[in-house]
Amino acid sequence: MEARPRDKRKRLPLHELPQWPRLMSVSAAAAYVGLHENTFLQRVGEVRPPPIRFGRLKFYDRRAIDAAVDALSAEAAAPKTEATAAPDESGTSKG
What we know:
By secondary structure, the chain is α+β, with helices and mostly antiparallel strands. The protein has a domain at 18-76. The chain is built from 3 helices and 3 strands, in the order βααββα. The protein has helices spanning 26-33, 37-45, 62-77; strands at 23-24, 52-54, 57-61. It has a 3-stranded antiparallel β-sheet. Strand 2 and strand 3 form a beta hairpin.
């Protein structure tokens, strides 16, 4: 069996982060929500919350990440309907 090449990406050891910082780099923010960096950027970090920029560096606010994940969870949990229930002729909602 051939040895697998080591992943050269820098990983943040979660056991060394007892409390998450308020502002996090992309790698820390991705680790915070349990996603790969690319997935975080595609699904969370570029849409909401917007990064806080210091020159070329991007940081994500932990509270904004929490709010974004809560919003994504609410969207996923919401029932998907073609249209909202419209009132019928008698004025009561259908469905």
